[in-house]
Specification:
Structural class: mainly beta
Largest sheet: 7 strands, antiparallel
Mean pLDDT: 90
Order of helices and strands: HEEEEEEEEEEE
Strand content: 25-35%
Shape: elongated
Helix content: under 10%
Radius of gyration: 31 Å
Length: about 180
């Protein structure tokens, strides 16, 4: 009986030894900062000019809308943080003229929770949301990445129109929570 117990003990020891595993741990520390970056690509100014009619009684010709600008952004929100939005406003208005802005749906090389366009908006000196719902995302950099912009001018009230030349207006874009 002692011999059987000894054999069982040896077999048990051998089996438990073959199933023995070893583990080790390593701590990895990382940091992902809150990121809020935005720019307009390409740099440079936009020129939009009305054209005078060639026949009495006809309306002035609206400028061809400009589609050369793109909004690029990178966003990393805080845990439980709010999504971001991009607003736009002008530094001044032109009496009798609507300055319109439309951001297209995001396209290009980006990823994540890209924002949603608000459609066409009329810009004033009060910021208006152009893109909303931006989460952790990036659009890609440069033209053909992000949201294509369409900037246009149309008369809002002919009674208020006055001839002007080289009137500069700045559009101010802001990304915020």
């Amino acid at each position: 009986m002692i011999l059987i117990r000894s054999i069982l003990l040896i077999v048990s020891f051998i089996l438990s030894g073959s199933m023995y595993s070893q583990t080790a741990t390593s701590t990895v520390t990382m940091a992902l900062p809150v990121v809020t970056l935005m720019d307009i690509e390409p740099t440079g100014n936009v020129t939009l000019n009305f054209t005078a009619p060639t026949e009495a009684g006809n309306a002035i010709g609206n400028p061809t809308p400009n589609t050369s600008k793109w909004i690029n952004y990178t966003s990393a929100v805080a845990p439980g943080g709010l999504t971001r939005r991009i607003t736009a406003a002008v530094t001044s208005t032109i009496l009798g003229i609507n300055i319109r802005l439309q951001a297209a749906a995001a396209s290009g090389a980006g990823g994540g929770t890209l924002g949603t366009s608000s459609g066409q908006v009329i810009l004033t000196t009060t910021p208006v949301t152009v893109i909303s719902g931006i989460g952790g995302a990036y659009t890609g950099n440069g033209t053909n990445n992000g949201h294509a912009l369409t900037i246009s001018l149309v008369p809002s009230n002919y009674a208020n129109l006055a001839a002007q030349s080289n009137t500069a207006i700045t559009i101010v874009y802001t990304i915020t929570e």
